[in-house]
Model the fold of this input.
Amino acid sequence: MIRYALQCDHGHGFEAWFGDSAAYDDQAARGLVECPLCGSRGVSKQIMAPAVAGTRKTASGPDLATMQTMMTRMAREVRSHVEQNFDYVGDAFAREARDIHEGRSEKREIYGEATPAEVKKLKDDGIPCAALPPLPPDPAKAH
Done:
């Protein structure tokens, strides 16, 4: 793994981890690297000092509240994209994912519910699936 210091074309600095330098180059070339603060895909590597034991990190980044806001926004965007573009299959997710993978159902993007055991079996069998990011509770509905 390699950690890069990155900066977007709006001046936001952030760090990201990649499998190796080729992974960064490939993802950047395909427009998959974006600023977590503003979403800009105009991202470039910055000069970075090597990690040395005993040194103190002095670079300042976004505060915790900003990071929480950003992560909540991103989680909502992911969920919204899935809900608008994928077929909801409810608790039949594991069966339908297997049927699609094995060619018994039409190929399409789906989402739904599955137990941890069902997810493990899908992954063990090489059937791709991932959990949607959880959303934090709505503060307006608390109490």
The two ends are 43 Å apart (CA to CA).
